[in-house]
Amino acid sequence: MDLLCQKLLSQWLLVILWCSIIATIFQHVSVVSLPNNETVPAVIVFGDSIVDTGNNDYITTLVKCNFQPYGRDFGGGNQPTGRFSNGLVPSDIIAAKFGVKKFLPPYLDPNLQLQDLLTGVSFASGGAGFDPLTAELVNVMSLSDQLDMFREYTRKINEAVGRNRTAMIVSKSIYIVCVGSDDIANTYSQLPFRSAEYDIPSYTDLMASEASNFLQKLYGLGARRIGVFGLPVIGCVPSQRTLGGSLNRACLDSSNQAAMLFNSKLSTQMVVLGKKFSDSRLVYLDSYNGLLNMLQNPAKYGFEVTDRGCCGTGNIEVSLLCNRYSIDTCSNSSNYIFWDSYHPTQKAYNVLSSLVLDNKIKDFF
């Protein structure tokens, strides 16, 4: 009887250990069950600072965040990896949701191993946009540059594992595109180059045209399961409130209207492309209403502060302005929707990713 009890106890301990390991791997992220027992070989991401996991660390640009207090809650704490948040960003969270891995590494990391490549990377570069001028102005990697890196990526894995396995990885992976906020918030609203030439309807036409071209090129390179984030409620991020929301720092309605106009054009383009490429799954991901819901009902999701970031005053600090010398940085970022004046906290990214993605998972298959 004692021996039986010992065996049962050891089995329970093993179960508890495995549960602990699994919980650690996907900490704070709800893994979503995939339809028809589907498996996803890799998650591959293109875009801007929302999904950049550190590529800008390896290029010459001022758009960086590889210093404290960024990464304050990443891993074991105080690990500024180049993610524009206090911890995980949507690239990581989405990779975990699809059961692939906990962290999605940046493609430019020189320490990448073959297994890192086979399970996916982020090509995103903070400061990029659908408008090619957006990346050029701040010397970061444009969507065109990111596609070139993807071509190089597929050559690398083809050399390592052969044509058949590469074709399987490329066709069955989940692709995420998250970009465009900087086009409206920075290139159009803060600088004279585009606003002198375009009004908002024609500028969002330009963005939508570039988005369509990018998606067609990505399809041409073998991608089939593609999720594209619409623009969030840009006018309500703290920096936009500070720069254009008058003394009471109200949401900037013009930026929100521009985001909604672009989103309607983007979703329409995706429907058209979905019909053109009938073997693809193009999934529009509505981050506008997701973030708006969080801002309008913060207590529902466990937040208290919605109009400023945790870093410094939270009104204007972002990238180089959010640093270890920023005074008044909050002690509990989980109370805040925003980490700096532009980017959400890890907690907010987790909530937003679930609101936007969980009920759309089935549409990828």
UniProtKB/TrEMBL annotation:
<dbReference type="InterPro" id="IPR008265">
    <property type="entry name" value="Lipase_GDSL_AS"/>
</dbReference>
<protein>
    <recommendedName>
        <fullName>GDSL esterase/lipase EXL3</fullName>
    </recommendedName>
</protein>
<dbReference type="GO" id="GO:0006629">
    <property type="term" value="P:lipid metabolic process"/>
</dbReference>
<dbReference type="GO" id="GO:0016298">
    <property type="term" value="F:lipase activity"/>
</dbReference>
<dbReference type="Pfam" id="PF00657">
    <property type="entry name" value="Lipase_GDSL"/>
</dbReference>
<dbReference type="InterPro" id="IPR050592">
    <property type="entry name" value="GDSL_lipolytic_enzyme"/>
</dbReference>
<dbReference type="InterPro" id="IPR036514">
    <property type="entry name" value="SGNH_hydro_sf"/>
</dbReference>
<keyword id="KW-0472">Membrane</keyword>
<dbReference type="GO" id="GO:0005576">
    <property type="term" value="C:extracellular region"/>
</dbReference>
<feature type="transmembrane region" description="Helical">
    <location>
        <begin position="12"/>
        <end position="29"/>
    </location>
</feature>
<keyword id="KW-1133">Transmembrane helix</keyword>
<comment type="similarity">
    <text>Belongs to the 'GDSL' lipolytic enzyme family.</text>
</comment>
<keyword id="KW-0812">Transmembrane</keyword>
<dbReference type="InterPro" id="IPR035669">
    <property type="entry name" value="SGNH_plant_lipase-like"/>
</dbReference>
<dbReference type="InterPro" id="IPR001087">
    <property type="entry name" value="GDSL"/>
</dbReference>
